[in-house]
Amino acid sequence: MDAPSESSDHSVSVVAEAVNNQFGALSLGERNTKVPVLPSQSASNRSVQNLVWKPKSYGTVSRSSSATEVGKTATVSETGSPGDSKVGLNLSNFCGGNFLENFTVDKSTYCHAQIRATFYPKFENEKTDQEIRTRMIELVSKGLATLEVSQKHSGSLFMYAGHKGGAYAKNSFGNIYTAVGVFVLSRMFREAWGTKALEKEAEFNDFLEKNRMCISMELVTAVLGDHGQRPLDDYVVVTAVTELGNGKPKFYSTSEIIEFCRKWRLPTNHVWLFSTRRSVTSFFAAFDVLCEEGIATSVCKALDEVAEISVPGSKDHVKVQGEILEGLVARIVSSQSARDMENVLRDHPPPPCDGANLDLGPSLREICASHRSNEKQQMRAILSSIGPSFCPSDLDWFGDESHLKNADKSVITKFLQSQPVDYSTSKLQEMVCLMKEKRLPAAFKCYHNCHRANDISSDNLFYKLVVHVHNDSGFRRYQKEMRHTPSLWPLYRGFFVDINLFKSNKGKDLMALKSIDYAVKDASENDGQHGKDGLADDDANLMMKLKFLTYKLRTFLIRNGLSILFKDGPAAYKTYYLRQMQIWGTSEGKQKELCKMLDEWATYIRRKCGNDQPSSSTYLSEAEPFLEQYAKQSPRNQILIGSAGNLVRTEDFLAIVEGDLDKEGDILKKEGVTPATPEPAVKDAVHKDEGLIVFFPGIPGCAKSALCKELLNSPGGFRDDRPVHTLMGDLVKGKYWPKIADERRKNPQSIMLADKNAPNEDVWRQIEDMCRRTRASAVPIVTDSEGTDTNPYSLDALAVFIFRVLQRVNHPGKLDKASLNAGYVLLMFYHLYEGKNRKEFESELIERFGSLVKMPLLKIDRTPIPENVKEVLEEGIDLFNLHSRRHGRLESTKGTYAAEWTKWEKQLRDTLLANSEYLNSIQVPFESAVHQVREELKRIAKGEYKPPSSEKTKHGSIVFAAINLPATQVHSLLETLAAAYPTVKSFLEGKEKRIQEKLERCHVTLAHKRSHGVAAVASYGQHLNREVPIELTQLIYNDKMAALTAHVGSVDGETIISKNEWPHVTLWTAEGVTAKEANTLPQLYLEGKVSRLVIDPPVSISGPLEFF
Q1: Which of 120, 368, 646, 919 is the most buried (most CB within 10 A)?
Q2: Structural domain of 223
């Protein structure tokens, strides 16, 4: 290849200069554009296995600060594999030498990383659902944004980046999930294009490859296991289209997605747009009306009536999946979205379906049914039926038989050590490095890139990186880092990256160098962009998932409860489903209906299956017939179930999954995970015939033993006659919690102070089980602390705990100042709580046990923790992470880091001793803490306790909209009328009690969902909680009922119009007469069958418009 041009030389020199900066600024010419890049690694090239802990270091990769001269760069080829890679690629390169092990990182080592597939970034809203609603309504009302709502189909995330880019599930590729996804996508093309399908498939794949694009879809199929309802057909719905390019991924707007999909005849989702206050408030009201009873037909009908724009999906949910609708996704989008959507709908009408009547060959279900030997046989059969455009080779499925389990850390380490060839690579390095430094719960899984087998050599390596975030706390913590560093790229869901590690002496590639020049554009477009379409970041990312009870009762209550029912029995199952309903805020009426149904289900399925638990992947084979029969028993049951029947049998064609995969196709750990089985939340009081267990989700040094001693010796105990006992964990031989269970059985009405730390959910489940078996309540006492992003206990609280432990002498548990590894033990307990912040920690305890007592620890007006105390604790946490990653729970006095632990333990003692005056001064006096805890426990025992709010929004099932009137004013009016008119006084005599009962719910009905429809009720949402004036003009009555005629006034100049022909306030009905019959009073007056009294002048009152 020719020598690089002058501009190329300049670009290379820019990279070399930038390598010196650790996340520094890259200055290009005079434009001062900041392009963060990572430095190269020093020539030592130590592997992760040989890392040495260093104090004050968060990371585990050392970096060189010396300048690096780069004269050449290796080939970064954009060409893919030839036609059929099973013939054209030399896969022996993967096993023909220890290329990775022998690949050393030095000044001539570069890396090139490109995102290959990704879904939307996951943003965790820190606001409550109600706060998000309020903000959404506010933004739309001010004309700053539009609310976009789409259906949520029940399936799995599937991403496709072209025949060379690959097919991906949420956190994996090359498995049955992606094979099924590619087949179904190809099938969609055949249905849409008919005889032109092969030609269009080739064009489509070339288009994706040429433009580096990825499409994301919801893959809905009956062959991959049950969700809420078995789909009638196998299909995909496009949910995102992404241009990957050479910079940050660009996601299409919904109007652009519809335009793209209509061009290629791909299935689209049903979408609604709400751009006014009236429509957006009506939407949320409509959901509240339907949240416990909604099915696809009723939901779509209601939203069609209240939305400004409704774009039906090309796949009708009712026809392809069924009536059971998982939910809706609501998000804030640009205020221009409605106009853009109108333009797209005008210029791009729905495409025809040319293959609807053609023979498209065996269906997915037929193929799976014909190949039942094993997963590989089934995948080969599926892939061979797809065709050359979508599946020119099966390398991603069969080219690399094993995951590079031992190479993951080495690949990532060398990726971070190498010099980035372009801006995008530097940003991806920055992201990975930050996630590792902050110890986010994520895995970086590396695989051979089989499509590049022919390009592999000892100094030119190709890998696929899967970034797998294990839980939502990782996204939340990363989002917080983005607020501090806005230039960070987002953390995406479904995140796959192609990595090329190479030496500069492999040649020169102008395209790779040219990408450096584009860094200016990338940086200027991405740096400092704090939102989209004029919205602030927090507003631009506002999103809510709204799920329906008819779906949740199947998936959460029946499917997810199977293991609890069959392992722990009906009582534990009842506890589980009651807690779920409590968390959701299910209305009392629906809770009663569900309890009856679920109890019958538990009896039915245990009688039928004995001890053989049905598989969760085919649970509907048992549940659907039961639900169908239950629904037939009454109209109320039919509404509860939503829809049942027409069961699709899957046993003959269910895909074979030989490994343990989740519903998205991700590999699961072998060890089983038992779902939580908590006590129903929020007890109003602790009954005297019940026992009480007081326990401590704490850390050594939290003063639980001292507190138990004080509580045990308190005069008068808990102000009742129940005996108080305690059992100190350090004095118990054998397992502690079974001993507590024995004591509970001996003294079931006693109060037990469980003097042992209860740090995790396994212990909490044992306590819940004791509560069920021995008729007891449990109260957790936790040390009050602000916590951190990932731990309910802050560093200053941890410092106090350790300080207290190091002051102990002759401790029964031998954890005191004489303990050589006391600091390590405290860190071990501290990490048992890792993964939950304080809010999550407290909310879970409240939801499980219904109460929470906080024991004060630190003074509010304290000064910040000294820097040297903070540093020594952070150093210990780093050392603990290194130790636990290598040795697990091995004692700190043993293993690779024994010397470092000895040094740190001494430094810890010296530091805390030097700050003893500070650590003593910041603590709340123990006597004060004991008094506060004692009083809270007394309130709980007396039933006066009100638990802290866990901020769960409760909507319930809305039936009607009405104006709630003050009962006292209406009652006063009746007294005035009785005093003035003897006939009225005579009529009211003897009816006072029933009238008083009616007046407690005094209202003017505006619309009822049974009589007027969901949209009619929802239309009042914009005036929710506003005061509405009412004029009462007539009293109409007979011997069966009585009501007041009401004239409804206006709000902000808009008259509130009742959907009732005769707006009124029902005052009284005789026994056996329903309130609804009061609507007939005007007609009865015309027929001369009732009495009427005109109120002159009319009486004016007002009340808030509410939903009931």
Answers
A1: 368
A2: 147-269+311-323+330-398
